[in-house]
Amino acid sequence: MFEELKRKLLSGQTTFEKALPEALPNLRGKISDEKLMWLANELQGYQQALDFYQTANHDLPTYRIVQGSIYLWRDGTYEELNHPYARRTEYFLSAPISWIEQFSNLPEDTSTVELPELSTFMAQGGGGIVCVCANAELKRIIARFRNEFIQLLDEAEKAAGAASQGT
Q1: Cβ(52)–Cβ(92) under 8 Å?
Q2: Backbone angles phi, psi at 104, to 5 degrees
Q3: At what angle do helices 16-27 and 33-44 cross, to 10 degrees?
Q4: Long-range pairs for 10-17: beta carbons < 8 A, 24 or more residues apart
Q5: Helix (H, G, I), strand (E, B), or coil: what is residue 93?
Q6: 68 vs 70: CA distance, rounded Å
Q7: What is the pLDDT of residues 98-156, one digit of tens each?
Q8: Strand pairing of 128-134 and 77-79?
């Protein structure tokens, strides 16, 4: 099962949106709970993303930090923000990996990714907070996640093989 999934991921025959829900139940007991939680966060998005902005000691994956700018997206236009976070140059993309995967495949040089954790308290008047960054940043996130996910699939394959040898 893991080899087939790995082959499909590497050949582009499947997406993370399909692969993660398929893999997660089969990975239980074969990889650590910490790694299962990481995959669940990648699948659903990082609910604790505000930690990135509020503390230096967050447990969020650094590969999801991008260089960019944030704006209020309202009625189809970008509006400048007057907020300390808008002066930053790095942002954490908390969106599910499937969204990042979809945005990374768009032909534009830049991508716009919603930051729902900032929208809740910075966009009370409507609209949403978005991060505008180079599409290459999204491709970097996808490449890093794909490599780590495939390593986990290899780990699980070995654990499954060892378990079947022991029976």
Answers
A1: yes
A2: -65, -20
A3: 150
A4: 10/150, 15/98, 15/101, 16/42, 16/43, 16/97, 16/98, 16/101, 16/145, 16/146, 16/149, 17/98, 17/101
A5: coil
A6: 7
A7: 999 999 999 999 999 999 999 988 887 788 999 999 999 999 999 999 999 999 999 98
A8: unpaired
Q: Are the C-beta atoms of 124 and 109 separated by less than 8 Å?
A: no
DSSP 18-85: HHHHHHHHHHBTTB-HHHHHHHHHHHH--TTTHHHHH-SS--S-GGGEEEEEEEEEETTEEE---SGG
Tokens of 127: 């609209």
**Nearest to 90, CA basis, from 139, 34, 144, 137:** 137
Give the model confidence (pLDDT) of 19-67 as tens digits: 999 999 999 989 999 999 999 999 999 999 999 999 888 999 999 999 9
Beta pairing class for 90-92 and 77-79 = unpaired
Question: How far is residue 5's CA from residue 166's CA, in Å, rounded to a whole number?
Answer: 24
Q: What angle do CA 70, 142, 121 make, to 5 degrees?
A: 30
| Predicted TM-score (pTM) of this structure | 0.90
Within a 13 Å sphere around the CA of 71, how many CA atoms are in the beta-carbon half? 15
Rounded distance between C-alpha atoms, residue 39 and residue 19, angstroms: 11
